[in-house]
Amino acid sequence: MPLNNLKSQVERNHDARILGHLPYNEAPKEKLVLIEPNIEVHMDMRDSLLKMREEAKKDGIYLIFLSGYRSINLQKDIFYSLKSIRNQEAAERARVSAPPGYSEHSTGFAIDIGDANQRETDFEPDFENTDAFRWLIKNAAKFHFKLSFNKDNKYIDYEPWHWRYEGSIEALKVFESSNRKL
Length: 182
Fold this sequence. Notes:
By secondary structure, this protein is of the alpha+beta class. Helices cover about 35% and strands about 20% of the residues. The chain contains six helices and six strands. The chain has helices at about 5-15, 45-60, 70-85, 90-95, 130-140, 170-180; strands at about 30-35, 40, 65, 110-115, 145-150, 160-165. The radius of gyration is 17 Å and the shape is globular.
């Protein structure tokens, strides 16, 4: 194979992942809105997120928001501090937490959701066994939300609590590369 063809093939196959995570820009502060104390999200997703919670409540499901926007600096602290505390190598830590600059949370379009009736499942794979998760699987797409890290993800551990918003042009652009079949 000629060198220039090999180079273009390598460029097509390279998607800028680091430890399985794609890079994301940090949302501008002026595009973030507070939805609960200490939880900000991108303004494009606010109304859909709150409407989804209200619709779930009508069905007897009480969704709680655990985490939204995270600055790249906060993600840096989370990634490196927990890596050190847990004596983990970077690749091991990246299975459960994105390196700084590679978290969907920094876009403002990601939300971690829990079940108010089963708080012991917060940030746990067992969240998939809750009524809240079953409701989300059936209904989240109506509100433009998608499960980010499913069981088939070969890079990142399954996170049934982690959902991302894809209901605006800006959100679609942000997640375009992760939605492509690479």
